[in-house]
Amino acid sequence: MQKNLLKVDNLHVSVEDKELLRGINLNVKPGEVHVIMGPNGAGKSTLANALMGDPRYTVTGGKIYFEDEDITDKKPDFRARKGMFLSFQAPEEISGITVENFLRAAKGAHTGKDEQILRFRKELKSKMQELDMDESYASRYLNVGFSGGEKKKNEILQLSVLDPKLAILDETDSGLDVDAVKIISDSLLKYKNDSNGIIVITHITRILQSIPVDYVHILAEGKIVKTSDASLVDEISRNGYAAVLENL
Predict the structure, then answer these.
(1) For residues 198 and 187, which has the higher predicted lDDT (pLDDT)?
(2) Nearest to 166 by CA among 187, 193, 202
(3) Alpha-carbon gap, residue 222 to 19, rounded angstroms
(4) pTM of the model
């Protein structure tokens, strides 16, 4: 039997005593693509951050397992080294650290090996070409002065370089034009294989048009209220969330 890559068991999460997630259950197996959709304020970003161990979010009940290991109380760097990755909805700007140095250090921490500069630079150049990113971005400070679309591409560049076991993408497609969405979709298709998993958190559907989707989950008021196949994306596109939620 195929084991779960990620198992979320009755997860409750609060921020400053306000409960935001009210019993989330989610199983992601290797090779699967899960989509989490829902109206604004449903708890989608809360779930993403809680899965990565953001200390601002307090787990008040339930468990998170990664490859059958209980990581509920583990810190974000532990989860990252285990193979979890989060693409942020609003990536931070970090002065003083170039994109290249950041990614080389991150990959070294992930693999436990020193990354040779020239070999890594060659790999990075190739990855940037795939994303239609100018090579000069490698020597710029991380996200400083980047447009919204450039920041999102940089997140996918990190995903491509680090090659994690589980990618959690929090509204990676928001604010992107059609061409940028296609480039990112193509990169995700190259990343996807039978050994890794993808969770796409979104409220729009453009990025899903060329990515095979196994399960779609509707999150509302801190709970997953409906799970179906990719046809649910089309239903939401046609009728909106309100119509779907009314029929539950």
Answers:
(1) 198
(2) 193
(3) 8
(4) 0.93
